[in-house]
Design a protein that fits this description.
Chain lengths: ~550, ~90
Amino acid sequence: MKDGVNGVALGVFVFFFVAVTVMGFLAARWRRAETEHSLDEWGLGGRSFGTWITWFLLGGDLYTAYTFVAVPAAIYAAGAAGFFAVPYTILVYPLIFTFLPRLWSVSHRHGYVTTSDFVRGRFGSKGLSLAVALTGILATMPYIALQLVGIQAVLDVMGVGGGENTNWFVKDLPLLIAFGVLAAYTYSSGLRAPALIAFVKDTLIYIVIAVAIIYIPIKLGGFDDIFAKAGQAFSQTNPVTGKPRGALAPAEATQWTYATLALGSALALFMYPHSITATLSSKNRDVIRRNTTILPLYSLMLGLLALLGFMAIAAGVKVTNGQLAIPQLFEDMFPSWFAGVAFAAIGIGALVPAAIMSIAAANLFTRNIYKDFIKPDATPAQETKVSKLVSLLVKVGALVFVLTMDKTVAINFQLLGGIWILQTFPSLVGGLFTRWFHRWALLAGWAVGMVYGTLAAYGVASPTNPSQKHFGGSNAEIPGIGEMGYIGLTAFVLNVVVTVVLTFALKALKAPDGVDETRPEDYTADAGDAGVQVELPPATAGTSH
Amino acid sequence: MSDVPEVRPPVVTPVRVVIAVCLIAPFVAMLWVGSYAKTDPAFIGIPFFYWYQMLWVLISTALTMTAYKLWQRDQRSRGVHKGGEAK
């Protein structure tokens, strides 16, 4: 890393940052509704977004700063194995095509704001709903923390992070400012702020990728040279593991890992509360289906971005912390002003998802813990107030996490978060298609998946860092198959098996089935149908009929 | 219980089979890693493994789009009133 501050890059970065901050505060006035104080307004942007806003919002939400830093970093570190993010995002869209419109419809009929709202309504079980809500909050927290890690990487490369021996306050001040500003406009504008900022974020990202994918290969002598150099680098033996560093195509032994990671991650993505928040903010059912056909544009961008990892190798970028590889590549390759644009893209890329994630986690807390267990008669205005406060708390929590703990802890928890959130799949997606599963069986399956996933991840030592004995990765041997695979997917299979077996048992024992407040036609309802208003009555709608 | 019987056209129709194939094909192609885990032939210097998967981003997009169009037609032919068109 270079010493000193890159003044021009920093100037451009600050310019964009100030611009989106102004937008964030002004967003409160954008498409303002008459009834301001309901969770539908603050937490779902009035459920009014059309195809393009939803596209930007979902894209801004799913493809986070951490993705931009971590995917090429994984390629930089090990080659082919890091590319699983591409098949993962390919599989997501045909998958959500099948179930997301149903979730949209039933949520609009009943005024559901979170996935837990739906689970409670469908299975009549507050316990199961609480399990889903807690899992969502737990999985989201480290994800927010990782957005901060993304901003930190950019600040470090720009030279404003300070050295190791500067005072901690000076070192973390830029991050504190960035986060303070983010917290303030999320509080005042709700989901409208990230929706508006997402336009800037995605535009910047697309420009940076387009330039990078053309400009850098020209400077490095074309893709032939880039891959030749990368191939050489990967064939070198790593002194710690005694094996080659990586490969350009996955060896047979790692193909199971590649496929299970892609599938497991694809199944998990739309279980995350922030994905669902962005989905439910769209104005009709068609917006969702149409989006499954245009969102893959982001996958293409992700694939191109991943290739930057190879370019970092070919360009001779040497960093001890792999997360810095791509910011450093930009700094080395681009003129200062454009490096500033690229850093702004990553930095703003962290703000959008962090805002949506904190809103989503806050909604879960408000609807499924506060309202269900603490204050059942909360008014919509009270719900909104609690949500706003919790969104602040969640962010402070993430900040403390990043500032006090080692970065690898955040990454490990994020890996765990993926494993955990996948365990809510049977309740949510299962529930969207059938009422056959028993609520207690779903709860038991969830518990088994959570415990197995956590224990298995605990047992994974880091392959490259001998001092890290636990949570070193998310792959372990699949019992019964003997191949290495994604722990989350194995836990998910166990979860489903337990759920099915126990459902048979509980039905045979005639265990009390919860009350289902939904009807079959709710799952295909669309805006304009009876009972589905474009602007829903305040968030109590679910309980009033 | 959700299985309320109604009088309607058969659940499985040729169009719906095509829709299912469109949605399942990407899973088969991407999860069969052995079919593309190789570096040759390269395209403008990019090894096969990478360009093939990026090509599948486009293929799966086309397939999902086809499924979407067919589904719309299927729903219209069943006379399911959808607010998206009717406003």
